[in-house]
Amino acid sequence: MRIILLLICLTLVFGTVYTGLAGEEGYENRVIVRVDDEPITEFDLTLYLRYADPSYFNLRKIIANPELLTVKQETRELKALQSFAQIRAMLAYAKRKKLSVPETQRKKMFEKFLEKKAERYGSAQKYREHLASRRLTDKQVFKFVLEKELMTELRLKEFRPMRVSPEEIRNVYGANRELFKAPPRYHIRHFEVKKTAENRTLEEARKLAEKALDLLKAGSPFEDVARNSSEGISAEEGGALEWYEGNASLLSPVPETVKSLEAGNLSEIIETADAFHFVRLEKKEPKRQLSLNEASDRIESHLKARNWGWAKAVALGKALEVVTFEPERFQLAPGRNLTWKEFLKGNITLQKPER
Fold this sequence. Notes:
Strand content: 5-15%
Strand order of the largest sheet: 2-1-8
Helix content: 40-55%
Order of helices and strands: HEEHHHHHHHEEHHHEEEHEHH
Shape: elongated
Radius of gyration: 29 Å
CATH class of the largest domain: Mainly Alpha
Largest sheet: 3 strands, antiparallel
Number of helices: 14
CATH topology of the largest domain: Triger factor/SurA peptide-binding fold
CATH architecture of the largest domain: Orthogonal Bundle
């Protein structure tokens, strides 16, 4: 029932899009591929390229060699057609499974979609102007958003029973314990003087950091020095940062310095692009083995993604049974249809009929 609602919505909202623009620039409704007897036309592909690969239309500006331009265009066209045909095939499969996006949800999605775009571009009108420069409308783009949402519905409803059992998680953990290690963790206090403060020279900033470091070396508590003069985000906490696992949350070379310290030791002045820093290592925890409980969420996510990949491959195989290719567009012998494997290999040529 939901798929019927979706199809009605798509027909009412978007049904006039292709009809009204079919003659644009000579892009007639010449069929390239049929999915469950529904055609993907030359104009459909052009519209999808505008949405998914807008840089395709700039190739003429950056490639002067005509032969190379043709090769690049054909490669991008075929890649877009492969993606577009897969989406439409999966949507046809979803239709047979009676999956859809309800009309009320569709309206809310469209409103939220426009709100996000308006926020990003400054206003809905500016977003529409941006789309106009790509020769698209917000409704045309939203059609692709709806299709993506339907793919999500397919994933959630058709494959929801494919849950991961606790036994599967235990088996993966037991066979791959070496993969589930927690990295070393460092608890540090951090002091920072920014280079870019108003009415401060680079040398003055360095001297402020050196003065604070000298106070610590003379026995002043780190907490007091940080609260009084640090310009870092942890100043109010006395310079204390959350446990740090050596990732990119600190600017280089601070992480390298942290790893070289022993617990209780102060670093010297560290210079980054924007500031002078120093740190004190409070405590270090070595690399350790994660427990089954700690690793279970990660394992479950991996197995669900794997199961979804398998299920999608099976569904795609079934969906593609309804895909046929127009012989004159792919230089096919009479009565022969491409296999999907041949199509995805890309060793074929998409023929453009003379206009």
